[in-house]
Structure formats: structure tokens, C-alpha cells
Amino acid sequence: MLVALLPGDGIGPEIIAEARRVLEALDLGLGFEEAPVGGSAYKAQGHPLPPRTLDLARRADAILFGAVGDPDCDRLERHLRPEQAILGLRKELGLFANLRPARLFDELLDASALRPEVIRGTDLVIVRELNGDVYFGEKAMRTTADGLREGYDVMSYNEAEVRRIARVGFETARARGGRLCSVDKANVLETSQLWRDVVTEVAAEYPDVALSHMLVDSAAMQLVRDPRQFDVIVTGNLFGDILSDQASMCVGSIGLLPSAALNDAQKGLYEPIHGSAPDIAGQGKANPLATILSAAMMLRYSLAMPEPADRIEAAVAKALAGGARTADLGGTLTAARMTDAVLAAL
Amino acid sequence: MLVALLPGDGIGPEIIAEARRVLEALDLGLGFEEAPVGGSAYKAQGHPLPPRTLDLARRADAILFGAVGDPDCDRLERHLRPEQAILGLRKELGLFANLRPARLFDELLDASALRPEVIRGTDLVIVRELNGDVYFGEKAMRTTADGLREGYDVMSYNEAEVRRIARVGFETARARGGRLCSVDKANVLETSQLWRDVVTEVAAEYPDVALSHMLVDSAAMQLVRDPRQFDVIVTGNLFGDILSDQASMCVGSIGLLPSAALNDAQKGLYEPIHGSAPDIAGQGKANPLATILSAAMMLRYSLAMPEPADRIEAAVAKALAGGARTADLGGTLTAARMTDAVLAAL
Ligand SMILES: CC(C)[C@H](C(=O)O)[C@@H](O)C(=O)O
Ligand SMILES: CC(C)[C@H](C(=O)O)[C@@H](O)C(=O)O
């Protein structure tokens, strides 16, 4: 099995190196091939997603991705910016289903800004659509009839796009607590009205799953007020972006949250939900756990290796229980020492 | 001075009645005129914003608005739904600047889902644009070339729209802590790129205000992690909708948060940021404080009566300090008894 390693920018290379150590320690017979992506790829090769990188991503059985984002590149034309690499990979490989679990490790009850009694036992998954919405509609900087600059982006979903992500939501809920909350802004947006209509139609195929609908403003509130009310949330690309970052705070640190982006053949790209954190890059301070847990998701979903996936997750929990803490969790461990703690617990 | 009272749906009539009692107790010589709006107006007169209601809103010096939203009306054609009333008023009266303060009453340190040490001293204002964005662009339910249903909404801002709300943001920051954080999604949206460019241009007029930019996903996270880092946030219509509901949870209850929607002549519509709460309507349980505090904002911003505004705010703080609590704050007071506590403290 071939794993593509795409470290990217900022702390990306550091955390990918740590995750690779964990995968290698498990001796699973995986092959690794690395390629540049993001701002560093632009600087080296003139494009954030060079053809050879895309080719590797296509050839590989799964992709482990670090992070992209580089302040030096903010003023480039949009199609050359680092973010285009991840957006391009998601689109080119048809990775439409983004799974973003947010589970509280009991050991980190005190690391969250929320009260322990509010978050104890939080265990939810956000299923975010990743190939449509205002992310991929027509967009332009244009001039109005009055000669004013205007920014413009089209938001849309068609019923086929909603149906396939809704099914992932229902399947995920069926395999867990049996409750699916669909989040939209149907009181204002036609895109959301279609979303709500189609999710409601698909519900007929899943009589065993309890479906509810929530407006996105309410959901943002409820995720703070009482995150435990949620089992699975299914939502569009933009709302999923916002809510999953927010949810990460309910479980302690964004440095802990892995994610999977899957296509309909279960091929996947795995990445921590945090960004490239240029402010701490190169200092060895980054928390590698979100990437290590992303590697576990990769083993489970794309490489059909659920056992080593369980082992990694158990080792992370054990390392945390043993007191291992990086700076974002209030501790002093470097990324390498945190990984050592995971390896020791394997 | 004429105040238009638009109670609306659900708990709207109850909370407007309580706010009116407070205004009348102050004996300010205000005249009041009431008109139906929202689902109840649709049921009575066939339209959520009847012409006579819009006419009253135009004639009045200020508008005190309850809430709209009625599950009975969810399947009506969009232009007949309750929400169109508030969207119509905002647009028809040019109410483009939405001020949503979120200040923690020390007495409610324990009512929030966030830890006291995280929220103590939180005092921020969200300045939300209210006349543009994906709320008011072209929208449609259409059919794709393949015969699929598709929902569609155009997001856009032009430079004039961004400039005028940016100025409100800078002015608000100048009158407070001097820090403005502009929130967008410039790494994906052209609308946001224009937003960021124009806000940066306007900053030149306000050298005394410290401007920063934050992506909306980050902002959703930071509002939970450390809400005290913010002084004034300026953002578009959609992101402001989400972030302001979220921020309400940082200060205890959405039942406490007032808002103002102003046009360029300081004419305003004042409303609690919570909704019509149909589940508790008619039971006298609603928290009237957000509406009472909205009335205070109305006195200050549109009626040039800062003194009685201060008195109302002080009375609310005193009532809370005295232990007055409605159900949403963990207490047992009815709306009427909560208002009595405020009146006693006036
Ligand atoms: C980098 C950016 C384009 C991306 C997104 O908005 O999807 C990121 O925030 C994420 O959530 O993966
Ligand atoms: C009722 C709805 C249209 C409205 C909005 O989205 O603006 C509400 O959520 C608000 O924030 O005032």
C-alpha cells in the first residue's frame, strides 16, 4: 500500500514526520512517498499543487496531509495561493465527504474553555460536504454599473450533491448513536431550502435514524451551550468549516482533531483540522496528535487496517492519561517527545 | 417621539409588553403605536409585513421589535414567510448597521457554559452588516442541465457597502477599546477578499484604531477559547449572524442580548437577538431582559435619551445582582416578575 505524504507549510513537515514515525513503528508494510504542496510548493515549483504532487495523490492508496497556508503568499493571485492545493485535491479526487470527529478525552476535561460538566462525554462527528457550496461556485472580482469594485461568489447545491452527503450522514449516525442533525440556513437561503428538502427525502431510507434540522446560528449557539446533545451533524462546506473549528474548542484543543476526506471509493485524504500555524513553525512545539490520529483514521477508512488504528488511538489516550502535554494543552513537551510518549504506549 | 411596537410571533408579544412597561414607567413622553408583523401578520392580513406595518415603521422615530418565526409558516412560499418581515424592514429602511453587544454581567459568571476565568470581563460588540451578502443576492430554486433540482444564492459585496459598515466598525472601536477585528473568509471567497481590501483601505482614516483580520473559522474557535481578546468585531451579514448567536453563549444566555439595526440617519430597529421561541410562547416564561435592554439601546441611539438608557441598564444589572432569574438563567421568575424586579430597581 502506498501512502502519499504531503507535509505542506508551517508546522506541516514537523507533524507529518511525527505521524510517519508512528506508522513505521507499527511495521505495516506501508510504502511512503513525499511531495511538496502549498506555499512551499509554490516557492519551489511555481504552483501550490504541482502536477507531480497531484499525480502522486492519484496513485497513492491514501494521502496523509499536513497543512497549507503561508502569509508570504496572501497577495498572490487566488489560483496560486497555498489553500488552492487542498481545495484542488478535494475537488480533483472527488473527496466530497469530510468526517470531523470531536471526542473528548477524559484526561483533557480541564483543557477546554467550557465547564467540565458541560463537556464531559462529548462525542460527536461533523460530516461536512467538501466539493460544493460557495467554495466551488463561480466567483469573481468585477465592477458594478456604477464603477464600484464588487466581490462575488455563487453558493449552490444540487439534489445529487446533497443526497450523497446526506447518505454519509445517515450511515455515520446509524453506526453510532442513531441521531442526525442537519444544519442549514433554510430561512434565508434557497441552497439551504434544497438541502433541507433533500435530507428530509433521504430520511425515508433510514427509518432507524432520528433526523432533526437546526439553523446554523442556533447550532453555533448549541455547540457551546450543550455539545453533548449532538451525535452526528451533517452540513454544507461553509457551515461545516465554521462549526468544526468551533467544535474543536469544546474538546480541548484544535491540536487534537483529525479528519478524513473521502470519495465514493473510500479513498481518502487525512489531515489535522488545524492549520499551518506559521507563528510556531520550526520550533518543534506543535502538537502532533491531530496528525497521528489522522493516520489512525487513514488505516481504518482507506487501508482496511482497523486494528492498528485502534492501537494508535488507545496509545494516544494512554499518553494523555500519563500526563503527556504539548504547549497547546498547557504542557511543555515538544512534538518529538509527545510522539515518544505515544510510541511508548503503543 | 413615536415608537413603533412590532411584537411579532411566539414570545414576541410577551416581551414587548414587558419592555413597554419599563419605558412607560420612565415617563419620557413617548407615544406608542403597535402593528402586526411576521407569521401572525400573515395569518391576520395575508402578508408578513403588511403595508400599514411598513408605513408605521417609516413614520416612527424608532422601532421596537419582538421576534418573528412560526413553524406553521415554514412551508409557505419564501416571500410569505415570517422572516421576510425582518429582512424586509432591514432592507426597506436601509438599516445596514447591526450592533450586537455581548457584555458579561458579573452576576451571571456562573450561567455560562464557559469557565468563569475564561469569560470574566467579556465585553465585545459585533458590528454586523445587514443589507447585503448572500441574504439579499439573487436566489432561486432552478433545474440543472441534467434535470436536477438546484438551490442557488449569490453572495456579494461592493466597495461602498463594505466602506460604510467598516466606518461603523472603526467608529465603534474608537469609542471603546480601540481594537477592531474584521472577520471574513478571504482564503476562499472573492466577496471576502474585497471585504478585506476595503476594510484595510478604510483603516488609513483611523490610525488610532488597531485593525486585525481573522478568518471566520478561526473566529468561531477564538470566541470560545478566549472571548476577552475581542473589543469590536466587524463582519458580513452571514458570518455576523452565526458569530453573534455564538457570542451570546459566552455571556450566559441569549435571553440577555439586545441589538440595534441602524441606518445612516441613526434611525433604528431594536430587537433581542433571540428568536420567537414557539415552544415556550404564551407561558410567561420568556426572559424579557434582551428586549428591555434593546429599549435602552433605542433611547440611546435613536431617541437621544442617554440618561434613561443608562438607568435601564443599571436597573437590569441591579435586578440580576439581587438574584432575579428567569428559567433560561436557572431561576423561576416569570417575565412579569423579572420586569417587576427591574422596575423596582429603576
Ligand atoms: C484552508 C481552507 C481553504 C480550509 C477550508 O476552508 O476548507 C480549512 O479551513 C479547512 O477547514 O480545511
Ligand atoms: C430570522 C433571521 C432571518 C435572522 C437573520 O438571519 O438575520 C435572525 O437569525 C437574526 O439574526 O436576526
Automatic annotation (TrEMBL), chains A, B:
NAD(+) binds at G275, S276, A277, P278, D279, I280, A281, G282, Q283, G284, K285, A286, N287. Pfam families: Iso_dh. Its cofactor is Mn(2+); Mg(2+). It is found in: Cytoplasm. Pathway: Amino-acid biosynthesis; L-leucine biosynthesis; L-leucine from 3-methyl-2-oxobutanoate: step 3/4. Residues 2-342 form the Isopropylmalate dehydrogenase-like domain. The keyword Coiled coil does not apply. PANTHER family: 3-ISOPROPYLMALATE DEHYDROGENASE. Belongs to the isocitrate and isopropylmalate dehydrogenases family. LeuB type 1 subfamily. This is 3-isopropylmalate dehydrogenase. The lineage of its organism: Bacteria, Pseudomonadati, Pseudomonadota, Alphaproteobacteria, Sphingomonadales. The gene is leuB.
